[in-house]
Amino acid sequence: MTKPRDIIAQAWAMTKRERSIRKWGFVAALLATLLNTKLFIYQAWLVYSYFQGDPIGFLTMEKVLFESMPFWFFIVLMVFFGALLIIECLFPHLAKGAIIGLAAKSHKKEEVKGGLVLALYNFFPLFALHELLVLSSFTMAVTLCSLALRYGGGAGPIMAIILVCAWVLSNILEFFWIFAEEAVVIRKHGMRDAIRTSFKLVISYLGHVVFLILLMFIIILRIFANLLMVVLVPGIVLGVGFLLGTFLPPVISYSVSAIVGLLLIGVASYLFSYLEIFRQTVWTITYIELSKLKELDVIETKL
What we know:
By secondary structure, the chain is mainly α.
């Protein structure tokens, strides 16, 4: 069995070497950062308005935009943001198939090409697999808890507690399903077989403590970095906007803060792409190497 430190080294070398994989990772990270930033800004506005004694409604942001710009521009802006939201939600599933498939080809010393085919062919099974664990996302859990507290009435706190428990359970399941995506892309397993295979691999090699600690450290580092940047980027944007608004016209201050925000999102996405690709290639290489070993419950095979 390949040693954990060798897997880490191979994954990092692959991350730096394969530009085609980094392209998919960067676009996916950029869209994810944009989505998380928008969700955080909305939640921050909600918290601020709540402590001001006048909580905003569900469509307050759209109402403000409608009242502050021409009708035609508002329609164009809403169509653009709607299309962008759909892309932000769907593209990560496409990118995941491409990243896993290209990483597997690179590890097997094959020509690293066909990313679009891998993305399209594996989109639906990966999408279904991800939706089973949609509540494992911290941003999604916070958003749903916020909606429950705002519109759930007396049952809001209970619904929020249920959502938090569901988030914890989803993350536990995600740990045991960590190889399911690789099984779908590399071995073309169905969703049920992929989950079963992943669960069996994790249970079979749970004793490799150092290996699991390294991988869990990568996951914790990624989550911490995501949370930090999701809070930091909108905070800088809002701070720049408020600061410039004290001595510049609103249009100029908003434009400058938007440009600064886009630059920061671009830089953050570039860093996220390296971290995400590194994490994913670790799991991909690990799955390939563990799949070469005889299953622990198999004592003797038929001749």
